[in-house]
Amino acid sequence: xxxxxxxxxxxxxxxxxxxxxxxxxxxxxxxxxxxxxxxxxxxxxxxxxxxxxxxxxxxxxxxxxxxxxxxxxxxxxxxxxxxxxxxxxxxxxxxxxxxxxxxxxxxxxxxxxxxxxxxxxxxxxxxxxxxxxxxxxxxxxxxxxxxxxxxxxxxxxxxxxxxxxxxxxxxxxxxxxxxxxxxxxxxxxxxxxxxxxxxxxxxxxxx
Length: 207
Description:
Strand order of the largest sheet: 1-7-6-2-5-3-4
Structural class: alpha/beta
Helix content: 25-40%
Distance between the termini: 39 Å
Radius of gyration: 16 Å
């Protein structure tokens, strides 16, 4: 337990030393209320930086949703994901077509805890996030009490691009925006487009 805590602090410290990742609470404040933080995704550092940007008290009850095919691929990654970051691993391959890939995420929300998700489903390579997949909408409908908080991760694609072994010393920022919700009978595609726009609206440093 002590070793895990030390490793956790070391990972957070190294990540912040290299790329910053300092939080800016633009449209909301840290709170113990249940939340689903949803963000753009361009780097394998995204999970660590967003989770590390939360206050320590919130990290204890906030679980990043991560791809099992990457974070579970080696013993080291799996240890970091499960023991250090408290991730929820999702099977993107749908090895069992009858299984609900969101079941682990729903289980966490049913316990009253919070999630970090990347609705694109995989890392993007453009300046704007790819269209959001249905997972965010489905989780929001199933757990209407959870606040949906948009997050913009700035410069992560430059700090740790695909294929890089080590992060470049480029300052990154984590911006938390105003919570949104599914409005009445709002259609899935309309909601996902609005959620994506809420994330992109935080891209400007003036946001």
